[in-house]
Write a structure and sequence with these properties.
By secondary structure, the protein is mainly alpha-helical. α6 runs antiparallel to α8. The protein is built from 9 helices and no strands. The chain is globular.
Length: 206
């Protein structure tokens, strides 16, 4: 399967996912649920984690286009992403929540601060449960364990694991998500991964 063909499918997913995300964000303006726990309050704001947070997009693109050589695995993983996207969107509608970022203001002092401020301007503090960043990063980790390159390069899966953990940490240290959001995101990732491997993978031709 050509990289160009894979890029078209991945672009389609990206367009649909971002459209759904921001449409829901614009429509659901009241947030009824507060998942702030004492643990969330003691986690400090660390703007430098913004670089790990945004590495999310690059790693997904590189993984799908460069590392997933198997057509079967590519479409199974992409299908899992679509399923997760639908479930995430449903949660954002029926359990609208809001993160009180005002408790952790950001003052301009570095490039990291500037990027975090811009990120907050674009991405409103709702659509928190489950965390999309956590869902997709951990799902990518699970699927990459099945990639042929992971068998050849034994360091690859541990590297993805460290990256997924850091993405999870970034959502907490940037005050983008509650701890409940991150845990639910990881659980959703595993459920979508297992379902996709059992129900979709056997039905796709190599």
């Amino acid at each position: 399967m050509s990289t160009q063909a894979k890029a078209k499918y991945l672009l389609l997913f990206g367009i649909i996912n971002f459209t759904l995300y921001f449409v829901i964000e614009a429509i659901i303006v009241t947030s009824e649920y507060d998942f702030l726990l004492p643990f969330d309050l003691i986690i400090p704001l660390i703007p430098e984690f913004i670089w790990i947070y945004h590495s999310f997009f690059a790693v997904i693109i590189i993984s799908f286009l460069g590392l997933m050589k198997s057509r079967k695995l590519f479409f199974t993983c992409l299908s899992g992403f679509f399923i997760a996207m639908g479930i995430l969107s449903l949660f954002y509608v029926i359990l609208p929540s809001y993160y009180p970022r005002d408790l952790w203001p950001v003052s301009m002092g570095s490039v990291s601060d500037w990027l975090l401020i811009k990120t907050r301007e674009i991405d409103a503090p709702n659509n928190t449960l489950p965390s999309g960043h956590n869902t997709f990063s951990w799902m990518l980790l699970f699927f990459m364990t099945k990639a042929s390159c992971a068998q050849k390069f034994k360091w690859l899966v541990p590297a993805y694991f460290v990256w997924a953990v850091l993405v999870t940490a970034s959502t907490l240290f940037l005050k983008q998500h509650y701890i409940v959001d991150t845990i639910s995101g990881i659980v959703l990732a595993y459920i979508c991964y297992r379902f996709s491997m059992r129900a979709i993978y056997p039905r796709i031709e190599e």
